Amino acid sequence: MKVAIVYDRVNKWGGAERVLLALHEIFPDAPLFTSVYSKENAKWAKSFPKVIPSFINKFKIVRNRHELLPYLMPILFESHDFSTYGLVISVTSEAAKGVITKPPTYHICYCLTPTRYLWSHHDVYFKGQSLKGVVRPIVSYLRRWDKVAANRPDVMVAISKTVQDRIKKYYDRESKIIYPPVAPIITTPIRSTVVKGDYFLVVSRLVPYKRVDLAIEAFNQLKLPLVIVGVGSEEMKLKKMAKDNIKFFGQLTDSELAGYYKRCVALVMPQEEDFGLVAVEAQSFGKCVIAFNKGGAREIILPGKTGIFFPKQSVGSLINAIKKFENLPAGRQGTKFESNIIRKNARRFSKERFKKEFLDLVKNLP
Question: For the whole model, what pTM was predicted?
Fold first, then answer.
């Protein structure tokens, strides 16, 4: 069976891109269709036999200007032709699910989340905007199209129970859950510039809904060392907020990131995640996770065994959780949590498990 893989935009590296590479291992001959493709920012995509962007990709200014793309997404994905394929797999948190297929082509959508800026995080993306004038009708149109697009796949697969609930709420569709793959991070070599000593760690894209600002405000008050790994649109704003006890290290390779996971005291997750890949990564190193008690983190973290939850997405609530962690006595391993229990929990989300479950799904298609 001829297979095609579709993804929203191929111009960055993150958790979703790991899903694509795992699918590539299952279907090595499948090309990757997308809206835009930046070879410079998505070197991982060279693994695919072919990357096929939409017609808009010839305009360089659009490739990395995310704010321009939402309004164009419907036509970009509807322009792709899948008439020669037996199976189309869309991996999406936005518009890739809206590709048009005709029988006998089968379409499986691996949904990372319903489109955030239209539904679950609408208030964050449009904060301070009244949606008057030209914006309101555009958002209204995109919501209508998004609902239509969500009914095009033959099968919907959610990355977590959190996302499954959103799919039901916003699209009124049933879905099954296949947790995404979290492959062990390369542990050597460790970069010599890794911060020495005890510090807390944030690993995140620096964008509004990730709420890295909460972590910065909390650690500004606590005066405890915090390392932030990641880049994004809010980078300059967040750096201006941070005091001297907070350090930024940009985007790192897996081997570099491993050093920070290994030496951190705990990972801090102030955001509501669809799944929470970094929480699994941190636990694979035996590290505790201090997380907001909502979203995918609830499916990954075992409270009191592999992490601590804080109930409100506020500075005060996060500070209380960090103080609770700091006041915990050290256990028999000299740490506050049993690292072997934490590592065992992380193994529930292996790449081998993902590949088996996805292949089983494909084999059982009508």
Answer: 0.85
Q: What pLDDT sits at residue 347? A: 92
pLDDT at 120: 67
133: Cβ–Cβ under 8 A, 6 or more apart, which residues? Answer: none
What are the tokens at 251?
């985007």
Q: Which of 67, 12, 79 is nearest to 39 (CA)?
A: 12
Alpha-carbon distance of 236 to 213, in angstroms, equals 12
* Side chain identity at residue 155, one-letter code: V
**348 secondary structure, DSSP code:** G
What are 207's two structure tokens? 């964008």
Residue positions counted in the chain? 366
Q: At residue 296, what is the residue type?
A: G
Low-confidence ranges of the chain (pLDDT < 70): 63-68, 120-134, 185-197, 330-335
Rounded CA separation 184/280 (Å)? 10
**What per-residue confidence (pLDDT) applies to 330?**
66
The domains located in the chain, with CATH, are 3-181+350-363 (3.40.50.2000), 200-347 (3.40.50.2000)
The pLDDT of residue 332 is: 46
Check residue 132 and give its pLDDT.
Answer: 53
pLDDT of residue 254: 84
CA atoms within 13 A on the CB side of 350: 8
Instruction: Choose among 244, 240, 238, 215: nearest CA to 319.
Output: 215
Decide: 276 and 257 in contact? Cβ < 8 Å.
Answer: no
- Give me the pLDDT at residue 195, please: 55
Q: Which amino acid is at 267?
A: L
Rounded CA separation 289/145 (Å):
38
Residue 173 pLDDT: 97
Helix and strand numbers, DSSP H then E, in the chain:
14, 13
Q: Could you give the CA distance from residue 169 to residue 157 in angstroms, rounded to a whole number? A: 15
Sequence-ordered list of residues with C-beta below 8 angstroms from that of 51, at least 6 positions apart, any chain: 10, 31, 32, 34, 37, 45
